[in-house]
Amino acid sequence: MGMNAHTTRVVGLDVSLTNTGVATLACTPRDEWTQHVYTVPTTSTGTEPAALLDRMNRIAATVAETCGQAHLVVIEGGAYSSKTAHQHTLAGCWWLVFRRITRFDMPVIVVPPTTLKKYVTGKGNAGKLDVALGVARMWPDVQLRSSDVCDALGLASMGAHLAGLPVPYKVTKDHANALAGLTLRK
């Protein structure tokens, strides 16, 4: 991904049925950064398949609006060891979001949860609080109001680093080690 004379935007996504985390990082040609983090909250409209599909489609459509302006999207992959009652529905939502964002002409990187944790904390088994603290150290001026936006900002940070952008935080050995298994391709 070659950098050019335009602002480069990287989006991080933490897909959830209740609060999908979204983070957009933008780097200008002068290496000036802006960050925008938010959640896409949705409430249950029922457990019938049609109601669940409607909810998942609303999440995918809202996220796609942000991703349409990105140069790179980084999305957290599934937590396959997770044993929640909604795992099947969450997987369906993830695939709908993935399908929508891959229609755009930009690279999409899927990052396993353990790789995100390793990038942000140095440990692949870190808890939510450790991830939040790690992201807050990287981006001290960003208001992080939920673990969903922390994960999304960590993912966007990984994408910016992998794309060769001059990230405004100190790059550590842990960052490089976590990125070792990821590649940027279209």
Polypeptide structure, described:
- The protein has a five-stranded mixed sheet with strand order 3-2-1-4-5.
- Helix 1 packs parallel to helix 2 and helix 3 packs across helix 5.
- The termini are close together.
- The protein has one domain: Nucleotidyltransferase, domain 5.
- The protein is built from six helices and five strands, in the order E-E-E-H-E-H-E-H-H-H-H.
- The protein has 186 residues and is of the alpha/beta class.
- Helices cover 41% and strands 18% of the residues.
- InterPro entries: RNaseH-like_sf, RNaseH_sf, X-over_junc_endoDNase_RuvC.
- Belongs to the RuvC family.
Give the count of helical stretches: 6
CATH architecture name: 2-Layer Sandwich
Amount of helix: 40-55%
* Tally of structural domains: 1
CATH topology: Nucleotidyltransferase, domain 5
**Structural category:** alpha/beta
- For CATH, the homologous superfamily is named as Ribonuclease H-like superfamily/Ribonuclease H
The residue-averaged pLDDT reads 91
- Indicate the proportion of strand residues: 15-25%
Strand order of the largest sheet: 3-2-1-4-5
